[in-house]
Specification:
Layout lengths: L11 H5 L3 H24 L5 E2 L6 E2 L4 H21 L2 H23 L5 H30 L6
Antiparallel strand pairs: 1-2
Helix pairs in contact: 2-3, 2-4, 3-4, 3-5, 4-5
């Protein structure tokens, strides 16, 4: 004899805790965080600077901006790898960040070299975020597993 299905609806909070709705929500969070990272550290800078003593031109970003952006992306990849599968988390970080950078670079670059930078960024950030997200996900999944759980 089978038992009848529970007629009570599942509360929305329980539906989002696991499954596709959670995965989609987290992908959205990682994507927004990636674009916010680009905007916070790199989105407002567009000028080159010339050293008056040597005439050397540098920019458009200062070293501290790129380092801070990299550290922020590293933290984002660790958090995303902890809460999401790496096949969701890594693209959710890489693609929006690369798109934001590329759109901005295309607007301010007269040489067309932004396309080379976009490909390098896509490959570099994609590889790095995949490695970090996968490592953290594996640590959470296997190394922190307690016996009997």
């Amino acid at each position: 004899m089978s038992t009848p299905a529970d007629p009570r609806p599942v509360p929305p909070s329980d539906a989002v805790r696991s499954g596709p709705a959670r995965a989609v929500a987290l992908v959205g969070v990682w994507a927004v965080a990636a674009v916010a990272t680009w905007w916070a550290w790199l989105g407002w800078e567009s000028g080159y600077t010339t050293d008056p003593a040597t005439g050397a031109v540098s920019g458009p970003y200062a070293v501290w901006q790129v380092v801070a952006c990299g550290v922020t992306l590293l933290v984002l990849a660790v958090v995303a790898g902890w809460w999401s599968a790496p096949w969701f988390a890594a693209p959710a970080i890489t693609l929006p960040f690369t798109a934001a950078w590329t759109v901005h670079a295309a607007r301010v670059d007269d040489t067309g070299l932004f396309a080379v930078g976009a490909v390098l960024l896509l490959v570099g950030l994609g590889t790095a975020s995949a490695l970090v997200c996968t490592t953290v996900w594996l640590i959470r999944r296997y190394a922190l597993r307690r016996p009997g759980r």
